[in-house]
Amino acid sequence: MAIRAPVESFTDISNYVGKRRVPRRPISCRVGLLISGTYYIANAYEIGEGGVLFDSPVELKAQQMVVVSIRVAQVIKGVMLSRVVYILPATKDGLPTRYGVQFEQIDFDIKRQIRNFVASNNAA
Questions:
Q1: Among 102, 8, 113, which Cα is nearest to 54's?
Q2: How far apart are CA 100 and CA 68, in angstroms?
Q3: Which residues of the chain have pLDDT under 70?
Q4: What is the reported pLDDT for 17?
Q5: Chain-centre distance of CA 20, in angstroms?
Q6: Which of 3, 24, 76, 124 is an S-S bond match for 48, by CB 3.0 to 4.6 Å?
Q7: 59, 47, 51: which is closest to 101 by C-alpha?
Q8: Would you say the pTM of this structure is higher than 0.85?
Q9: Taking the CB of residue 84, how many other CB atoms lie within 10 A of it?
């Protein structure tokens, strides 16, 4: 005779969907973007080990792949294949359209450098 374990009811996880898994830190630096074979320079606003928030001189679409290169002297240096996961429209106060990307391919050492930078108190 088999004993059946009670089955829990469905748990609503909608509150967790779309939330960041890792913290981000404000940053003010330039990043390189390789978009459809053309290289651009853009401003970065936030960074975390999972992704970065930047503006772009060209319009990007959700789920579009871009290559992001970042260099913060003595702190971070790397190139990551990334996917656009959300778009923040331009605001009235002059902020351009910004794009949040998730790193799809990132070297462990670069991820560690970003994690240490986010956790530190040093200004960049």
A1: 102
A2: 12
A3: 1-22, 122-124
A4: 45
A5: 9
A6: 24
A7: 51
A8: no
A9: 19
